[in-house]
Design a protein that fits this description.
Layout lengths: L2 E4 L2 E8 L6 E5 L11 H9 L3 E5 L18 H9 L10 H14 L5 E6 L1 H12 L4 E7 L13 H8 L9 H15 L7 H14 L3 H14 L4 H4 L6 E6 L8 H8 L5 E5 L8 H18 L2
Parallel strand pairs: 3-4, 3-5, 5-6, 6-7, 7-8
Antiparallel strand pairs: 1-2, 2-4
Helix pairs in contact: 1-11, 3-4, 5-6, 6-7
Pfam families: Abhydrolase_1
GO biological process, one term: glycerolipid catabolic process
Protein name: Alpha/beta hydrolase fold protein
Length: 298
Amino acid sequence: MPKVAANGIEIAYESFGDEGAPVVLLIMGMGVQMLYWPDELCEGLAQRGLRAIRYDNRDVGQSTSFDDAGTVTFAEIGQAVMQGKKPKAFYTLEDMAADAIGLLDALNIDRAHIVGDSMGGIIAQLIAINYPERTLSLTSMMSTSGNPELPRSKPEAGAALASVAPDPAVDMEAYLQHYVNNHKAIGGRHQMDEEKVRERMRRAAERGYNPNGVMRHMAAATVGTTDKREQLRKLDVPALVIHGGDDPLIPVIAAHDTAENIPGAELVILDGVGHDFPDVSIEPIIDAIVSVTERAKG
């Protein structure tokens, strides 16, 4: 996959659709590669007349790794949180938002429809807040406003998020089964197809295994998931909030809270969907994103 220099690092990306079409920039969440955006979703957006661009955030996949900066463990992050302190972070979510803008710059794209999932949803919100002139529309998926009064994850989903996968170079089957189990823990009534999970994670292993990058992402997310409601209320951009009705990782009330704090935001709840992309969710997500891009045309 191609790479570009962006914000002082290298970003790997993949583009679907006509280069002259309106751009939908797809920002993935904590510790996972661009492959988590299903091929069917990217291709479906392209078939609807859009150019979908997915990319690896810093520290995952084929984008620049920050291993030389050091690392942090889940225990250290948890201890800091329990003590009311911030864990050591090696970069910020604002840095990651700047990476996205750097990618657009490198591809000579002035403005884009910004779509982010989970931690990527927070990054997308930051782009809309800090770079409104680059934002055609905002779609925040499976994410949160950072409202501290919102409920926490279900324990089993939180444990799945915090778990570190076995090294695929040592035991590929254990690595794949780890992610199958994780998807069951964060899924809803509609589960992802197990073979699709295995195939995606096999591809991810071939592109790069970076558990320390996952921890650095977690530190950045822990520090950066602050209350953004006041900033969101000032947005003047077509906005969409999508969430799974069965999400055990970020409860669906977070979607209602986010939508209530973005003027004019449309809220789409996917019945029976968890914190993932089962087959039944793909077309409704495509339809919703296409709808917000149409609203952005005025």
